[in-house]
Design brief:
CATH superfamily: Metallo-dependent phosphatases
Radius of gyration: 19 Å
Mean pLDDT: 82
CATH architecture: 4-Layer Sandwich
Low-confidence stretches: 1-10, 18-99
Shape: globular
Number of domains: 1
Distance between the termini: 32 Å
Largest sheet: 9 strands, mixed
CATH class: Alpha Beta
Strand content: 15-25%
Order of helices and strands: EHEEEHEHEHEEHEHEEEEEEE
């Protein structure tokens, strides 16, 4: 989606085939608390079955693409997901690299094509476009505890009818464990009615579109970056920023992750955006660890940095841009300071294994692509 004009946690990671050139497509602007719970999926019996099958087949984690990585791909055992509504979900991803208490989440944004687009191809897409089914197949294979969607779920206007035709048959297959963040294209339908109707209570209060919840020992916060559509914007002193600071103070977890649609930092076509400095400042002051965004249709990983974009290996926040959910690709325009890895020719999802004192990341590429990026880091 495009918009015109807008402790120590040092980690080690590696990427394979980190850059590329791609195509683009366009959109509009937009901005938006509520907690949520999720349903129940899987359980201990499934964990035992999966573990037995892995032992028989000798399955191993996908290796990093280049030497020197210290990352682990997204795999774990049964894991709890709790929201402010108090529900609990159990999932059982394959693998044995993490103990059962460490959940895996999968994340991406900029996902499902408009069914009227020539590249839709019955939902299967074509090369470089409309690959929402392929990326959703990756998530099904990962079997995460939760899915974090980073905005622009359904192009081009997020109407409920288009959700049903394109997003639902693909990424809707794990709707019950999806924690969505709203994007600018959602608001191309008045009041983002299609988005809030489709996701219901999972998307938070429709007048706000931001909320928080816990997964394992981590605190997660979904924010609304569409500042024109949320009360008094996103600036310092706005209701959303005040809520964010209060939420952080009320949840002094060792590890904290926040996600929203439009990035503060990006080497892609939208570039850096200081509208989100207040979000970053609140997160940085509270010692948060990770920020996930979409909006630019590429993958990018940044080193630890402060809200002004200065490298900060002691207290900095790591940002990932994961606009690789399937719509199409954007160009890398200006490589920004602290950008460590970029790729704009590969669709896929980012997995995060959320340990009590740190995390592993692993970019899982669509079938037939070789790009990967993985690493590990500790929380503040």
């Amino acid at each position: 989606m495009r918009r015109s004009a807008m402790g120590r946690a040092v980690g080690r990671g590696t990427a394979s085939q980190g850059t590329g050139q791609g195509r683009a497509g366009r959109g509009t602007a937009g901005r938006g608390t509520a907690g949520r719970g999720t349903g129940n999926r899987g359980g201990p019996a499934l964990v035992l079955i999966v573990a037995g099958l892995l032992a028989l087949t000798g399955c191993a984690a996908h290796p990093a693409g280049t030497p020197g990585a210290s990352g682990t791909p997204g795999s774990t055992g049964a894991s709890p997901v709790t929201g402010t509504a108090g529900a609990t979900l159990t999932a059982s991803p394959p693998g044995s690299s993490a103990p059962a208490s460490d959940p895996v989440v999968a994340a991406a944004g900029d996902i499902a094509c408009d069914p009227s687009e020539p590249g839709f191809n019955g939902g299967a897409g074509v090369a470089g476009q409309c690959r929402q089914r392929a990326t959703s197949d990756l998530v099904l294979g990962i079997r995460p505890a939760a899915v974090l969607t980073l905005g622009d779920h359904q192009y081009s206007d997020n109407s409920l009818d288009k959700f049903r035709q394109s997003y639902d048959p693909s990424w809707g297959r794990f709707k019950s464990i999806t924690h969505p963040a709203i994007g600018n294209h959602e608001y191309e339908t008045p009041r983002a009615a299609g988005y809030f109707s489709y996701f219901g209570a999972a998307a938070g209060d429709p007048t706000r579109g931001y909320y928080s919840y816990d997964i394992g020992t981590w605190h997660l916060i979904a924010l609304n970056s569409e500042c024109d559509f949320v009360s008094k914007g996103c600036g310092a002193g706005s209701p959303q920023e005040v809520w964010l600071k209060a939420d952080l103070a009320a949840h002094p977890n060792r590890c904290t992750l926040a996600y929203w649609h439009q990035p503060r930092f990006s080497s892609g076509e939208h570039g850096n955006n200081t509208d989100y400095t207040p979000f970053w400042q609140a997160l940085y002051n509270a010692g948060a660890d990770l920020v996930l965004n979409g909006h630019d249709h590429d993958y990018e990983r940044f080193a630890l940095q402060d809200p002004g974009g200065q490298a900060d290996s002691a207290r900095g926040v790591r940002e990932f841009v994961v606009g690789t959910g399937g719509k199409d690709h954007y160009d890398v325009v200006t490589v920004r300071p602290n950008s460590e890895v970029r790729n704009n020719v590969t669709f896929g999802v980012l997995t995060l294994t959320l340990h009590p004192t740190g995390y592993d990341w692993h970019f899982v590429a669509e079938q037939g692509k070789t790009f990967t990026d993985s690493g590990t880091a500790s929380c503040h």
